Amino acid sequence: MKTNVKIILNLVVGPVVFLLLSWFIWLQVTHQPNWKESLNQVCKAITGPLSWRIWLVVALMPVNWGIEARKWQLALRPIGGIAYPNALRAIFTGTTMASFTPNRMGEYLGRLLYVRSGHRIESISLTIVCSMAQLLVTLLSGLAGILYLRGSLSGPVSAVHQNTGYWLNVLLGLVLLLLLSLTIIYFRLSRLLGILSKIPGLAKYQAYIKVLENFDATILLKILFLSFGRYLVFIAQYGLIFPVFGVLLTVGQLWGGVSVVFLVMAIIPTFTFLTELGLRWETSIQVLEIFSANTIGIFAGSFAIWLVNLIVPALIGSLLILSIKLFKSK
């Protein structure tokens, strides 16, 4: 590839990604029911008497992704590590790439752009460990949330809530199976590698995942602890935002309901974030209407969290792509 073409591509890719992302966001928002009313509520809330809650939610966004960057930095130690500022840039860039791919798989591609050449394939397996830790926390908290919701539906309920109770029982069985399996895999990575090495056709890839043998229980527990800290930030953000839109929940209702929403979002595949807001909205309504009939407020709160935690970081990441030389001049 000629040098001039490479320079043009390096200058064009970032702005194009930014414009595409902005367009996709607009499509996603305008395809949701009651989006105008919810957007109007969000705009009013920014200057309302409870606006401090919204700004605190915004302030927690870098804390959220900062913890994720620290997790990833810790996970990359077996291959020489990465500076924290670069880890943070990689997290934002990964969020951008995830926006265009099914089930956010592009996140791995965005992150490895910041990994030293020669270790990029290995970094994928290490990133998966971080994802496993976050999923473990989500499953465990979601299990507690399901039990709480089942207890809330133990008395006389409507036909709609009876249907919700049925799906909670189905979800409970699935979560127990996933939680048991993932816990064994997470804390027995070396044994898993031994099993994979015996599978025909996978031996040639063993060099890329052998790095997982360097994980000891201490590092795994640290990553798990950071994942739980990030989860607490998520819960705190919802606890701050819902009262702004008139959704008043107790601590138990908030944790129980939101943890189940997170659980569904984690285990149901989505095809880019164009479907994620719809799934987030539908799940939030189905679960949280057990405690509140304010469906507009529930959507507005979920919409605000979606904007702060996913869309703003994705836009930041699209701008950071400008500083990455995707194509070398030589």
Report what the structure shows.
This protein has 330 residues and is mostly helical. Helices cover 74% and strands 0% of the residues. The relative contact order is 0.16.
What is the gist of this entry?
With 330 residues, this protein is an all-alpha fold.
Instruction: Indicate the proportion of strand residues.
Output: under 5%
Average pLDDT, to the nearest integer? 80
Q: Give the distance, in angstroms, between the N- and C-terminal Cα atoms.
A: 9 Å
What is the assembly state of the chains in this entry? single chain
| Helicity, as a percent range | over 70%
What is the string of helix and strand elements?
HHHHHHHHHHHHH
Structural class: mainly alpha
Number-wise, the strands total 0
Net shape? globular
Report the total helices.
Answer: 13
Largest sheet: none
Q: Which residues sit in consecutive blocks of at least 5 with pLDDT less than 50? A: 1-9
| Radius of gyration, CA atoms, in whole angstroms | 21 Å
Defining key terms:
mainly alpha; 330 residues; 13 helices
Secondary structure blueprint with pairings:
Blueprint (H helix, E strand, L loop, with lengths): L2 H28 L4 H12 L4 H25 L8 H15 L7 H7 L7 H33 L6 H28 L2 H9 L8 H4 L7 H25 L9 H17 L5 H16 L6 H26 L10
Helix pairs in contact: 1-12, 1-13, 2-13, 3-4, 3-6, 3-10, 3-13, 4-5, 4-13, 6-7, 6-10, 6-11, 11-12, 12-13
